[in-house]
Amino acid sequence: MSKNLFDKVWDAHRVGSLPTGQDQLFIGLHLIHEVTSPQAFGMLEERGLKVLYPGRSFATCDHIVPTESRARPFADPEAEAMMAELEKNVKKHGIAFFDFASGRQGVLHVVGPELGLTQPGMTIACGDSHTATHGAVGAIAFGIGTTQVCDVLATQTLAMDRPKVRKIEVSGKLGKGVGAKDIILAIMARFGVEGGLGYAYEYTGEAIRALSMEGRMTLCNMSIEGGARSGYVSPDQTTYDYLKGRPYAPTGADWDRALVWWKSLASAPDASFDDEKSIDGSAIEPMVTWGINPGHAIGVGQRMPKIADLPPAERDVARKAYDYMQFAEGAPIAGTKINVAFVGSCTNGRISDLRDAAALAKGRKVAKGVRALVVPGSMQVDAQARAEGLDKVFAEAGFEYRNPGCSMCLAMNPDKLRGDEVSASSSNRNFIGRQGSPRGRTLLMSPAMVVAAAVAGEVVDSRSL
Amino acid sequence: MANKDPKRGLIKGRGLPLRENDVDTDRIIPARYLKWVTFDGLGAHAFEDARKDAKGQPNDHPFNDPRYKGASVLIVNRNFGCGSSREHAPQALSRAGIEALVGESFAEIFSGNCVTLGLPAARVSAADAAELQDLVAANPSLVVEVDLEGREVRAGAKKYALTMPEAQRQALVAGTWDSTGSLLSNEAKIRKIASSLPYMAWKTAG
């Protein structure tokens, strides 16, 4: 038996044991955004500390950025103040900032990989729970709170409890029209929203190996929704091909050295794990959520569960979900009317997502009465989409094609649901009030399924289009 | 908070039962309150939307219930604090007067954030959490003792075994939960590990 990737990377970054027994872990890459960092810089200054490794932190702005007009000052004075605070802090501490002028602004978890900042074997932290996304390249990546952001700034390390590692094997070939979003929603449905507490997930198996890097990002992104703070895929040729030539990827002789190191970190077939689970990838169909957490997911052809059929511990939440969603237990999810369609977010705002969405939108029209948004994940995704004419495809189909940002995933900018609107969304959370209206209702699904719903005005199987 | 004794070995206060699994941090503090550059004032907005009915009127949420006014031990169920990593969630609870949480389980980022604020999130069994909630609901003036040192929660004549990650428990008992200081003291070791990592020296185009 050999060590899995997680244990190798953790051990390489372990500074030592703290008096409490926790590990002090070195953080190779720290990503910063405007919402969870201002208080951290405040704490740093209150204590008279400096940033220990300013070259290991990178910042951009995503959560509060308006997707219509980015002209400064922003119309929302709170958003403008938040942006100004970030600009002041990165300047003062010498931290690289991907602003609008750089052409590299975007959702952090889209920007990190596309610039090649995110690499195998790194430890990556960010004040955002979807930091697990970066595990797609074979890194240990996890979300932290604001006080911990201060710890990383001051020491480039964190006090951490070492998690256990669970292997999740997704076997077989995915069906046509089924992708990474469906896999992760199926995993949530199977293992629940707390099943991963105390674990890091290693995703493996034939269906995972066949995913593109962007698909692996979608998969790892939602690890936290299952309770696992981090999730990763051991690196392989797909990983190396993706990284080569990206701006922050190693070059020349360093690239060759990197390849040797990265390959040595991958989990070998005899690697040991604290726990192992498996799921049949060939049986997964396009998934849709019906309730108020991402574990409330079913195949598009299925009926919503009857409360009495659920395990007793899940019934109260399901009851609350039906009450909030105004859906009837036992009814089919297909045919559920929608008001809003959203393609975007750190889960599904990459170029491959926009291509999937555009392929279905081409030559079709958004149903009357449906408000449909496409928000690219970054300025680079936007530039590529425009170069391929995808923006025109979306516009002709009746989608509003916007500027990059987190947008309606969490509605910290003007993009919000109104009243009890139902949203077909390619984002990651269907929590109560998540998309900006305290009564708004979110159905999570893949970008293709969102477009299908936008066109039909109701939930339909995207494979039927 | 900064002036208080950092030791959290024993916390006593009246209980506040919040009966629900999978309470996410969006519910604890809605995202619109993340647009402030300080944590000040968040306490007034804890559970803001959850405390209102569809018409915007106060509902029967325990944070609205006058019987629990001044309560400081929040008693919850499974997977409390799931979802977003926002430290604003424990900050809001702390600023709303919560000094300890007791529940069946806590999401990992949330419980880690609690520790960095010196706010214990102690685990008891599912049955014990439910019984504690019943006890407190029946007698809101009952004092609940969260004894991290003795590893138990006491309420009246009842005692319940509590668990939490040992490092967190020790840090809270000893008052050493402010991690920045101990991390800083190892700068030489930090630099040594940094220089051993291959990627720290790689050339990139940038």
Describe this structure in words.
- The complex is a heterodimer of chains A (465) and B (206).
- Chain A is of the alpha/beta class.
- Chain A folds into three domains: 5-160, Aconitase, domain 3, CATH 3.30.499; 164-283, 3-Layer(aba) Sandwich (Aconitase, Domain 2); 287-464, 2-Layer Sandwich (Aconitase, domain 3).
- Chain A is built from 16 helices and 19 strands.
- In chain A, the strands form five sheets. A five-stranded parallel β-sheet of chain A has the order 5-4-3-6-7, covered by helices on one side.
- Chain A is globular and about 55 Å long.
- Chain B has 206 residues and is α/β, with parallel strands linked by helices.
- Chain B has one domain: Aconitase, domain 4 (Alpha-Beta Barrel), CATH 3.20.19.
- Chain B is 29% helix and 15% strand.
- Chain B is built from seven helices and seven strands; from the N terminus they run E-H-E-H-E-H-E-H-E-E-E-H-H-H.
- Chain B has helices at 25-28, 88-95, 108-116, 126-138, 166-174, 179-184, 187-196; strands at residues 10-17, 73-75, 100-103, 121-123, 143-147, 152-155, 158-161.
- In chain B, strands 4-3-2-1-5-6-7 form a seven-stranded mixed β-sheet.
- In chain B, helix 1 (25-28) links the parallel strand 1 (10-17) and strand 2 (73-75).
- The radius of gyration of chain B is 19 Å and the shape is globular.
- Chain B starts with 9 loop residues before the first strand and ends in a 10-residue tail after the last helix.
- Chains A and B meet through strand 1, helix 2, helix 3, helix 5 and strand 8 of A and helix 3, helix 5, helix 6 and helix 7 of B.
